[in-house]
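Appendix B, example 12.
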Amino acid sequence: MKVSRRIVLHFPKQLVDQPIIYALVNNYNLVFNILKASVTPGEEGLLVFELTGKKSDYEAGIDYLKSLGVKIEPLSRSVKRNDLKCTHCGVCVTVCPTGALSVDRKTMIVEFDSAKCTACELCVKACPPRAMEVHF
């Protein structure tokens, strides 16, 4: 059985320079898609990513991360669009780093693909009618 989960990893500063993600791929046959990362030598690292693979490999990979002292959380927030507030002005499209927001050139309607959204919240701050909302 295959699983795919979006998770947040907090790396202790002593692990930031270690090839931990490589080990997930090489040793546990997992596929990852980085959604957001903040990794600075000498500081705690943060990685938001989607991890996909066989359920047994996924669980073994998570156990490996925990054994290293990596703090793991599910991605517990998401951005939603309130369609009643949206005026389709397109301001959010210009700030979206993942392409989750785009304009349909035929209809000029702003489309929102929540599967591409990393919950960075840039669109929330930019949206004039406050149609983009954070949900926990």
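The beta strands are 2-11, 31-38, 45-54, 71-74, 78-81, 101-104, 109-112, 132-135. The chain has two domains: 2-74, 78-135.
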